[in-house]
Amino acid sequence: MDSIDQLIAGLAEQAEARRAGRPGVAEAQIERACRRMQAAGYWPAKGAEEAYRALATWLATVAAGQATRGLLLWGEPGRGKTFFLSRFCLAARTVRALQIAELYQEWGRAKVLTWLEQDILDVVPDDYYRLTLDDLGAEPTGKRFGETTEILADVIDQRYREWQRRGWGGATFFSTNLAPPELADRYGERTTSRLAEMAAAIHLDGPDWRME
Asked: How many Cβ atoms from other residues are within 10 Å of residue 63's Cβ?
């Protein structure tokens, strides 16, 4: 097993291990989270019950005030990643990876990163520093004046520092169609390692919702 495989093998298990020793949530809390998900139209897909329970457990930790990290949802298209993020992850802003890549071409790296971390409010709501980043990996490699860069790797590094400063208050919620090995190939070991540290990783499997 090479170094990248060692890094990403069992990404979800690594995320769970980092919570060891912290207070857990009771079964009743998980059941309440399941009912909340179902009330919003998010039902378990056939064959994806384990992932559904993992989502409910994570949501229960948020409701109990125990959440410390964001969320990384990965899996093939049509598994409900964006739906879950839009309904259950409290963040002031949602941006798509493609939008960031396009802004990089127009503005350049420094302005994009400044735009993402700007603080322009006199009264800052609780979710202001949290961010949802949708469809990570779907963006093209950034190109500007002949320079090629993975601008999303820079964004992830920025979000990692925000999380280090603010904890749950600076959490980031990601969705991606890329499997962990593909994330490591795309953004490098350092960035992928930071993703594993700052976000609980849950693999959404089962059938394509759009095909049912």
From this structure: 15
Distance CA 140, CA 20 (A): 37
| Class for the domain spanning 68-207 | alpha beta
Query: 133 exposed, middle or buried (CB, 10 Å; 0-12, 13-18, 19+)?
Result: buried
Task: Give the closest residue to 92 by CA, choosing from 12, 172, 189.
Answer: 172
**What distances in angstroms separate CA 202 from CA 49, 61, 68, one per listed residue?**
12, 14, 16
Hey, which residues does 144 pair with through a beta bridge? 147
Per-residue pLDDT of the chain (212 residues; tens, 9 = 90+): 454 544 555 554 454 544 444 458 999 999 999 999 999 999 888 888 999 999 999 999 999 999 999 999 999 998 899 999 999 998 989 999 999 999 998 998 899 999 998 877 667 787 889 999 999 999 987 566 556 678 999 999 999 999 999 999 999 999 999 999 999 999 999 999 999 999 999 999 887 665 55
Cα 20 from Cα 31, distance rounded (Å): 21
Domain regions of the chain by residue span? 24-67, 68-207
Q: Do 129 and 166 form a contact (C-beta atoms < 8 A)?
A: yes
| Alpha helices, H only, the chain | 3-8, 11-17, 27-39, 49-63, 81-88, 97-107, 109-117, 151-166, 180-187, 189-198
Provide the Cα torsion 57, 61, 63, 67; round to 10°: -140
pTM equals: 0.85
Q: Which amino acid is at 51?
A: A
